[in-house]
Amino acid sequence: MGEVQNQIAADLEKALAAGTLTTDALRRGIREITGRSDRAMQDLLYLQTERSSPCSKVIGMMMIENGQRHDGAADADEWPYQTVLEAMADGWRVVSFPNLALMALNHNDSHGLEFEFILER
After folding, report:
1. pLDDT for 69-94, tens place per residue?
2. Whole-angstrom distance, CA of residue 109 vs CA of residue 104
3. Are 81 and 55 in contact (CB under 8 A)?
4. Rounded CA gap, 91 and 77, in Å?
5. pLDDT at 107
6. Residues 21-25: what's their mean pLDDT?
7. Does residue 103 sit in helix, strand or coil?
8. Across-strand partners of 64?
9. For helices 3-18 and 23-34, what crossing angle results, to 10°?
10. Model confidence over 26-57: pLDDT tens digits?
11. pLDDT reported for residue 109
């Protein structure tokens, strides 16, 4: 959780302890912490890795968040996740694993990315 989310969580805990936490305040806090609006929109994260393991280094990424596409920073060290496992720890769920059948293809005539994970939240 980031600094803003920690502060929101702390404020909610104080209101709960004081007996002043309302249902609306709790819902608003949850939306602010998770970055979600009332209208839930699926976010997608495409991660290309060096190998088929979720622990492999990410070598390419593209994110669709709140309906907006983000390719990530030009410098890979600034990407939000360096492995699929890091993204999973941050709440992303894998919906598609690398299709290892692509490895059997002729590498001179590749039809897809060999080690692409697709995650959602």
Report:
1. 999 899 999 999 999 999 999 999 99
2. 11
3. no
4. 20
5. 59
6. 85
7. helix
8. 44, 69
9. 170
10. 888 887 877 665 556 789 999 999 999 999 99
11. 55
Residue 42 CB neighbours (<10 A): 10
Question: What are the structural domain ranges in the chain?
Answer: 3-34, 44-120
Token pair 């939000």: residue: 80
The secondary structure element, H or E, covering residue 4 is helix 3-18
- Parallel, antiparallel, or unpaired: how do β-strands 58-65 and 93-96 relate? unpaired
Q: Which residue has the tokens 């209101």?
A: 15
Pairing between β-strand 116-120 and β-strand 93-96 as defined by DSSP bridges: antiparallel
For the residues of 38-98, what is the DSSP string, one character each?
A: SS----EEEEEESSSSTTSBEEEEEEEETTEEE---SSGGGSS-SBHHHHHHTT-EEEE--
